[in-house]
Structure formats: structure tokens, C-alpha cells
Amino acid sequence: MELTSHRWTPGQKESDSYSKGNAREVMIGREHRGDENGTTRYRYATVSQG
User: Where does the record place the region Disordered (predicted)?
Assistant: First the structure.
């Protein structure tokens, strides 16, 4: 198994955030700055057989 095609989502307000990966993607990271009104973004990668 291999993780490829890493991508970050655009930043969004934490208290209104929602994120869901595409088919065959897994969440591999999250970055948050500030409080509930701060910016959050998520990192995804595609799962493939190596």
C-alpha cells in the first residue's frame, strides 16, 4: 500500500468546518490556528497499491 497525491484543503473557519475526502483518500493531517474562529485545513492522500 502506498499514499500518493497529497493535498491540503483550503482553509476554513473551525466552527463551520467540514471535510470529507474523495474516493480512496484518507486524512493524514490537520492544521489549526487560533480558537474556534481560527483557520483549519486538512491534508489527504490517495491510497494505492504499490
Answer: 1-50
- Averaged pLDDT for residues 28-32: 97
Count other C-beta atoms under 10 Å from residue 14's C-beta.
15
Whole-number percent of the chain with pLDDT over 90:
92
Kind of pairing, strands 25-33 and 39-48?
A: antiparallel
**What is the CB neighbour count within 10 angstroms for residue 42?**
21
Kindly provide the residue ranges of all beta strands, DSSP E only, lying in the chain, ordered along the sequence.
2-8, 12-13, 25-33, 39-48
Q: Among residues of the chain, what percentage have pLDDT more than 70?
A: 100
